[in-house]
Structure formats: C-alpha cells, structure tokens
Design a protein that fits this description.
Number of strands: 0
Helix content: over 70%
Number of helices: 20
Structural class: mainly alpha
Strand content: under 5%
Oligomer: single chain
Length: 503
C-alpha cells in the first residue's frame, strides 16, 4: 500500500473515533444512566465533559501539533483516547465515567486537528483537495451512521462495548501512523511564542462554569447562591478571555476575523443551528428509549432517515451554491430544519411512521441544504492564509453551540417535566408512598424504576411532554439561525464549493 493511502487510513480512523464518540454515546446514554443509577444531570455531563474539552481546546490542540510535530501529537492523542475509552468502558459509577470522558476529550482535541494537518502536509495541489474530500466524506458518513451502529452494539453487547471497540481501532490507527506517516511541523510556528494556553484555559473555564450553572438548574438548583456565583464567574471569565485575546500577540482565536460580517454571521448561524441540532438529538434517544420503550438498536435506526437525505442533498446544494451564493441556501435550509423541529413538538410519537419518521426526514433535508454552504462560506469569508484557522474556529463554535444548548435544554426539560408531572400524579390519585417514590427518583426523570404502571405512565407522559418543549426551544434557536443567515450574509459570494468537514 502506498504511503498516501496509509496516511488517509490513519487520519480517517483517528478523526472518525473522535467524531463517532461525540454522537454514538447519545444512544448508549439512556442505558448507562439506568445501569449506573445516575441522575439526568449526571448523565448529561458524560456528553458535556467531552464536548467541553473538544470545543474549548481543539484550536490549542492544532497549534500544539503544528509546533511539536503532527504525527507525534496524533499518536499521543490516540494513546490518551484509547486509554480513556478503556477507563470509561470499565467504569463502575457515573463520576468515573464522566472523568474518563473528559480524558477522552483531551485525546480527541489532540487527534482531530492533527489528522487534517497531516493530510495538508502530506498532499499537494489537487491531490490535497482530493484527500481532504475523501477524509471529509468518510468521517461524515461514519459519524452520521454511528447512532445506528452504536445502538446495535448496545443492544447486543451492552453500553461498555461502545467504548471497548476503540481499542482495536486505535491499535490499527497507531500502527498505520507510526509506520507510514512522516513527521511534519509548521516552521512558522517555531518562531512564535508558546501556544495561547491562557486564552484556551479562560474559555474552557468560562464554558465549564456556564454549563455547570445551567446543569444545576436542570436539577432544581436555580435559586442557590452557588449556582448564581458560578454563572456570574462564567460570564466574567468569558470577558477575560476576550480581553486576553485582544492583548496577546498570537491569540488562539484572532478576534479580527470577526470584523467580517459574513464570517461573524456564518459563525452565529453555526452556533445557533448546531446548538438546536445537538440539543434536540441529545434528548431524542432518551424520549424514544425511556418514554416509548424503544431498544437502543431501534432508537439508532430511527436516526437513519436523517442521514440519507442529508448525504444526497449535500451534493446538490454544493452545485447550487456556485450559482446562487450561500444566503438563500442557508436561510432556506435552516427554515426547513425549523419546520422539522416544530413537527417533533406537535406529532405524537406512539407510531414511528407518523410521529417520528416525518420530522427526522425533514431535519435531514434541511441540513442537506446547509452543511456544504456553511463550510464553504466560512472559508470564503477570510483571506487564503487563514482558511485553516477559520475552519477550526467554525468547528469549535459548532461544538460550543451544542455544549451550551444541551445544558440549556436540560434546564427547560427539568422545569417542563415537573410542571407536567404534578397534574398527572393528581389525576391517578397517587398515594403518599407513590409520591415519595417519585420524589426519590425525580432527578432521574424518565430513567427511574416504578412498579405501578399508572405511576410509570405519568412519568413517561410528563417526560414526553417536556421533550416537546425542548423541541420548541431548538426550533427557536434554528429560527434565529435562519434570520442571522439572511440578515448577515448578503455580501457572501458564490465561489467554488469546497468539501464539507465533519462536525
């Protein structure tokens, strides 16, 4: 096998592990919550801890790889990621699983940016474009199909298999990279100061504090003084991050790029749209599995109609983009996503074909019109020498949007669940013993265990109703993204469409 093929194999496998573990855990999480006896907020941190590290530190990971050697950092990321995966798969409690997921995020923030940088260093000209296209296609497909594969794994072997699977994949990736990937560095990076650790630390702490405050609200902690202090600290840390980025010579996120209204607009749309998408599809498997009795495998298959139209329409939208520009595609495609989210809120999900299939397909169609124009617009909005940085910022923004939206949606779900539950318990004339049982398991939401089928029906009905409110919140976020796209992208030009990168 030629060296170039080994490079593609190793980088595709490495980045796919990172992106797959960002989405496949959503299908496994309802089962993890039940078996580890975790609250809903604790289960939420299994995803949030991973996204926090990826979103806040991925740009730092890219800078470290450019400075100290892309292959070296890529291999280090594989070792950390696989070790953390084994740790998570062997976890006996939810806190251990959360810590392992944070460690996974550290490995991922080293692997993902290094993989694309390795391709950029090993291929030139048209071969580089072709290699990036192959990398994008494979990582996108594996990421989109991961809920289906993950659901099958969880049903057949349990949730731990999702993490243990990373061991053989990581071993093959490390072997290919160690034996066949040449080392490379960014020579300009050697003349700069050490990567912007201060800015990266500040944004990580700021996001962590904000997510903590929102997650505390999802367990009824909105009125506590500690939560308020942490929320204020998060805002203050974010302000400190902006101040530090303006002062440092080599910032991790050059704020000058945001002077472009197109660059600012497309990143605002990314934050809102991917926030809505992540928020809805985080809670969707919980609703299917805990409220409607789906198995993990069936819940994963329920996502397949999202993948097919997205993949098919993305190719069409890339061609349309060269003629019309991104404004109408982004605004219109996002409006279709809004309609899909709204359908989640109004259609009863007792029947898959009438209540689940239509909104899933509609969201897939809308995203099919959005993905390629979004990536292309980001790259076209900045000078050529900043294209890689702009793409990295946009990918980080998409993860930060998901990070914050999941936390906010969790708070909405908690309030809506408790509001809907009280009248349902009254309607079945729940006894004091039954109410005490509900109270003991309230923080587990629909993940609790109840012997009386009437109490169980009240719990699942309240959760189903609360998920509808989450869908409306996500529809509002997507609607704001559509407005931002139309209002701020009027000057974006319809240049040649580039290959979309995985998020």
């Amino acid at each position: 096998m030629r060296t170039e093929r080994w490079v593609l194999l190793s980088t595709i496998l490495g980045s796919s592990m990172v992106f797959i573990d960002g989405s496949v855990v959503g299908v496994a999480l309802p089962v993890m919550q039940r078996e580890l006896h975790a609250s809903a907020a604790q289960a939420q941190w299994v995803v949030e801890g991973y996204l926090l590290v990826l979103g806040a530190l991925m740009l730092l990971g890219g800078a470290i790889a450019d400075r100290y050697g892309r292959r070296r950092i890529f291999l280090a990321g594989i070792v950390i990621f696989v070790a953390a995966s084994m740790w998570c798969g062997a976890a006996g409690g939810i806190l251990t699983a959360i810590a392992a997921r944070v460690a996974q995020g550290v490995g991922g923030m080293l692997m993902a940016p290094a993989s694309l940088a390795i391709i950029a260093a090993c291929f030139k000209g048209k071969e580089r474009d072709r290699a990036v296209g192959i990398w994008s296609a494979f990582t996108a497909v594996t990421t989109l199909l991961s809920p289906v594969l993950g659901g099958a794994l969880v049903t057949a072997f349990g949730w731990r298999a999702v993490f243990f699977l990373n061991a053989p994949i990581g071993a093959l990736t490390a072997f290919a990279a160690w034996r066949h990937v040449p080392e490379s560095r960014d020579e300009e990076e050697q003349t700069r100061r050490f990567p912007d650790v201060l800015g990266s630390t500040l944004i990580a702490l700021a996001l962590g504090a904000m997510v903590y405050a929102l997650t505390a609200a999802s367990e009824g902690g909105t009125a506590t003084l500690t939560t308020a202090i942490v929320a204020f600290a998060g805002v203050a840390l974010f302000a400190a991050f902006l101040f530090a980025e303006r002062r440092t010579r080599d910032p991790i996120m050059p704020l000058g790029l945001f002077r472009s209204p197109v660059f600012s607009g497309v990143n605002l749309a990314t934050l809102l749209l991917y926030g809505g998408l992540s928020g809805l599809f985080y809670f969707f498997p919980f609703d299917l599995i805990q409220a409607h009795g789906y198995s993990a495998a069936r819940a994963g298959l329920a996502m397949l109609p999202f993948v097919i139209p997205l993949s098919a329409i993305s190719r069409i939208s890339a061609r349309i983009l060269t003629r019309t520009g991104p404004r109408l595609l982004l605004a219109g495609g996002t409006a279709v996503v809004v309609a899909g989210f709204a359908l989640f809120a109004v259609l009863p999900r007792e029947s898959y074909w009438s209540g689940v299939f239509p909104p899933v397909v509609l969201v897939g169609i809308g995203m099919g019109f959005v993905v390629a124009p979004l990536t292309t617009t980001v790259m076209n909005a900045v000078p050529q020498q900043h294209v890689g940085l702009a793409s990295g910022i946009n990918n980080a923004v998409s993860r930060i949007g998901g990070l914050l939206a999941i936390a906010a949606a969790g708070a909405v779900l908690w309030i809506a669940f408790n509001t809907a539950l009280a009248p349902r318990l009254d309607a079945i004339h729940a006894t004091s013993q039954q109410r005490a049982q509900v109270e003991r398991q309230r923080t587990r939401l629909a993940g609790g265990t109840y012997n009386d089928p009437r109490v169980r029906a009240a719990i699942t009905g309240a959760y189903d109703s609360a998920f509808n409110d989450v869908a409306l919140l996500c529809a509002a976020l997507a609607a704001a993204a559509s407005v931002a796209s139309y209002a701020m992208l009027g000057s974006a030009s319809p240049r040649r469409a580039s290959q979309p990168t995985s998020r």
